[in-house]
Amino acid sequence: MNEVQVGSWAELQEAVFADSWDPDIGRFRLKCAFRGLSDVAYRLETALMRLGGNYAGIEYQLLRSFRKYAPRSGAERESVWHWISLAQHSGLPTRLMDWTYSPFVAMHFATANLARYDVDGAIWAVNIAKAHQLLPGRLRRGLEQEGADAFTVTMLSDSIRSLEELGDVSKDDVVLFFEPPALDERVVNQYALHSMMTNPATPLDDWLRAQPDLWRKIVIPSTLKWEVRDKLDQANITERVLFPGLNGLSRWLRRYYTPSTAT
Fold first, then answer.
1. Is the pLDDT of residue 262 over 50?
2. Can you state the percent helix, strand and coil of the chain, rounding each to 5?
3. Shortest CA distance to 142 belongs to which of 164, 169, 163?
4. Other C-beta atoms within 10 Å of 43: how many?
5. Which domain holds residue 203?
6. 207 occurs within a structural domain
7. I want to staple 33 with a disulfide (CB 3.0 to 4.6 A). Which of 99, 101, 159, 255 is the partner?
8. Domain-located, residue 249
9. Radius of gyration for the alpha carbons in the chain, expressed in angstroms and rounded
10. Residue 77 within a domain
11. What is the pTM of this model?
12. Are the C-beta atoms of 103 and 52 separated by less than 8 Å?
């Protein structure tokens, strides 16, 4: 079954690290991207989708305007993949979705919102190596030549130069996972990863349900959230670390000192 309900901290660890043994290298190495959601009912929809209306039709205009008005720097010479990563990082609605290599960072995002402690949370885990086996041959070969499971912006730029070209790489909808450039400490500390559909109008969860061997959804019951949250704090997986700066520090302190009876 793709949906796994856990009942304890120990079961949560077992679930996120399931099938991590790699016999080829004799190490425990997950080839998964993780995304934590504070509400199990939330869809895998991008911020671009949540705009509503003709969101796919205005994607290019959004990114064009972002590039036009963004402060000048060396970024203007970078590829569209650098720019879309910067736009996503800065809060612009894009077709990108944020993921992480770290199951503990995903647990943080599943438990950081105290206003959602009355509902179950969830962690999605997607095997990116298997997902990329569905890509056209030239893209798969690029990953194999680099010995990589996910793309970098440089690798993407070598194969796909624009959003229009991305839409033409396959007759079927496919997903790519790529690592954003290290724009700041937040990207690095969150062990960040992005997903990107070739068709911006295709919800990722709909696509995944047609590929059941690629994913798991781990459900964290609301009654377990405080324990998970407290143990993550003890392990230093907090806003102070994941959002470096005074804003992250303040967010951590506000949550940390909120009584556990608050909802």
1. no
2. 45, 15, 35
3. 169
4. 13
5. 3-233
6. yes
7. 99
8. no
9. 19
10. yes
11. 0.94
12. no
